[in-house]
Specification:
single chain, about 600 residues, alpha/beta, Nucleotidyltransferase, domain 5, five-stranded mixed sheet, four-stranded mixed sheet, 20 helices, 15 strands
Length: about 600
């Protein structure tokens, strides 16, 4: 019989952490009945002797207090000893694990398993009592969050073994902490994971436990990791001029957003440099949040980080435009060509739907391509850019030279090769003075548009920033609401994820099969786009690298061991409502239903 399960009536029974015969993440049932399970009589095979574990005399059941489900991680609810006192030390008779990086590494990296209850009982019934040599006949089980505590007794009533399915830190199974960390670091929410556990009948901890752990350990670790990561990104940009792009992103569709996150990205490295989360209660209206977030980011970049920002590209937000003209005039302002092209396309489509303008529709794609060509080929000359764009009203007529137009002295003919007679005949040209041509001139030659097109001369766009916003949807979906501290942490997780995986190589074919490309060729996937309403090929990329998540999880475990609890920044306002909520009794008196 193995030495680690040898006990006597007067010897303290042990709660073994890592190493006893079952390595278990979560037990599947809290049922303590063992009826119908006849204990086998054969002697179990000899097992390897493990080092002795620390003994445990504590017999009272472990409890997790139920409390308020607070997604913002408030102090209400769980009232563990370590929550009331950051310097709390567990009872001496509880299993304590040494505060070392090696334990955090082992807890995070070792394999875990889902073990069925019947399989646990099958193994436990093979253990014999050291006092009377009889087999185990009774198993008392106690579920604590994601962990299982089992007390094994023989027919004589001797306690044969006390065992835990996972290490305990204080009174908490370490699986509670790891599951909470994995949930948040993967971009999931407690509600979705808990529902998965319910469907599988897998024992799990309460929402209160999750939100308490999130506030005490997860969010502080994310903040600490982001601070170090951001410092490394900023340090790489110091000493030379920097081109930045920026854009805002609201947390919900429509015009009733609660949050707006503004992000700055370096053009050359495509890494997120800084972010700011603004709550609507700070500005009074959701339309003002983007400008406030932009201003806070720019102040930090210029005054705190001391970066030499040469050019900065944004969309055509009027508030940001004014700030760039008045407060940040030393930085050259550019517009994002993607957003401007999208705006022009929308106006052209609207015009083409009117009666008599149907001939304009086939030209819209070519007109937008012309805008991109002009911004790229103008050599940063604003006046040349405006004239190149204005020439589109001649090209759609089949007229490719216009030397008699005094408004276009720098660009008097199209830049493409001369068209053949066949190309000229096949193209459906617009007629001068037609309704479609006049509609195009009204959109393309509008004074405000010609003024804004000058800001495209640097040919900068926020495509990489849109990719980051797509990653952000994984961590903070627009259909879900998060507390301020949680939302901030999820923004940082998305930025870390993006920065760590920028510049991934395209995936290539390694094992060719029938119908695939040759070995070493780039892999592509077929995608039907709603915008183009056609099938396109998109390159596949190598799998993402999530090694940084292990560092985050190890940091969380170490924070728990050392009881390092950093304060979480408070939200600008507890509630976005301008008035205090009345009592439920008052609301019920005035409540009326249509049904």
């Amino acid at each position: 019989m193995p030495s680690w399960c040898t006990t006597s009536q007067n010897t303290p029974c042990l709660y073994s952490g890592i190493g006893p015969p079952i390595q278990l993440l979560i037990s599947l049932s809290a049922d303590v009945s063992s009826e119908g399970m006849a204990p086998p009589q054969e002697t179990p095979p000899q097992q390897e002797t493990l080092p002795p574990q620390r003994s445990l005399k504590h017999k009272s059941p472990l409890k997790i207090e139920k409390g308020e489900d607070n997604s913002d991680g408030s102090d209400k609810g769980c009232q563990d000893d370590e929550k009331r006192d950051p310097h709390y030390e567990p009872d001496e008779d509880l299993p304590i694990f040494s505060i070392t990086d090696s334990f955090a590494t082992k807890a995070v990296e070792e394999q875990k398993y889902i073990v069925f209850e019947a399989n646990i009982e099958q193994l436990c019934y093979h253990i014999q009592c050291s006092q009377c040599s009889s087999s185990v006949t009774d198993i008392e089980k106690q579920v604590v969050g994601s962990g299982l505590l089992a007390t094994l007794k023989c027919i004589s009533g001797h306690v044969v073994l006390k065992w835990t399915s996972q290490p305990l830190d204080g009174r908490m199974p370490i699986g509670n902490l790891l599951c909470s960390a994995a949930t948040m670091f993967s971009g999931l929410t407690y509600q979705r994971v808990a529902q998965f556990m319910i469907f599988l009948n897998l024992q799990f901890f309460s929402a209160t436990t999750f939100y308490d752990l999130q506030k005490m350990y997860l969010i502080p670790e994310i903040n600490s990791y982001w601070d170090a990561h951001q410092k490394a990104v900023v340090d790489q940009l110091k000493g030379s001029s920097t081109d930045l792009i920026g854009d805002g992103r609201c947390d919900s569709p429509g015009f009733s957003a609660k949050y707006c996150s503004y992000s700055l990205m370096d053009v050359s490295s495509e890494k997120v440099v800084d972010m700011e989360l603004v709550q609507v209660s700070e500005t009074g209206a959701s339309q003002r949040m983007e400008a406030v977030g932009f201003q806070r980011c720019m102040d930090r970049v210029l005054n705190e980080y001391k970066l030499n920002v040469k050019t900065f590209a944004t969309d055509r937000h009027t508030g940001i435009r004014k700030l760039m003209r008045t407060k940040y005039s030393s930085v050259k302002h550019n517009f994002d060509i993607f957003h401007l092209a999208k705006n022009i396309k929308s106006k052209l489509r609207k015009a083409a739907k009117k009666k008599g303008n149907e001939e304009l529709e086939p030209w819209i794609k070519s007109i937008i391509n012309h805008l991109w060509f002009c911004a790229r080929a103008c050599n940063k000359d604003q006046e040349l850019l405006v004239q190149m764009w204005s020439s589109v009203v001649y090209h759609v007529l089949g007229q490719h030279e216009w030397s008699d137009d005094p408004n276009l002295p720098l660009f008097q003919k199209c830049g493409h090769d001369p068209l053949t007679d066949l190309q000229q005949r096949k193209k459906i040209w617009l007629k001068a003075g037609s309704s479609a041509h006049e509609a195009l001139k009204k959109v393309a030659l509008a004074k405000r548009l010609l003024k804004d097109i000058r800001f495209l001369a640097e040919f900068m766009h926020t495509g990489a920033l849109e990719v980051f916003h797509n990653v952000l949807l994984k961590y903070a979906p627009k259909r879900l609401e998060f507390g301020y501290s949680s939302m901030t942490a999820r923004l940082k997780l998305a930025a870390i994820d993006h920065n760590q995986n920028v510049g991934r190589a395209k995936a290539v074919v390694k094992k060719p099969h029938k119908g695939s490309s040759a070995r070493g060729k780039v892999q592509y996937k077929k995608v039907f786009t709603k915008m183009k309403k056609s099938w396109v090929l998109k390159a596949r990329y190598e799998a993402k690298n999530y090694d940084y998540v292990k560092d985050l999880m190890k940091g969380v475990v170490y924070r728990r061991q050392t009881r390092t609890i950093d304060p979480v920044p408070a939200a600008p306002a507890k509630n976005i409502a301008p008035t205090e909520a009345p009592s439920k009794e008052e609301m019920l008196k005035s409540h009326a239903s249509r049904f």
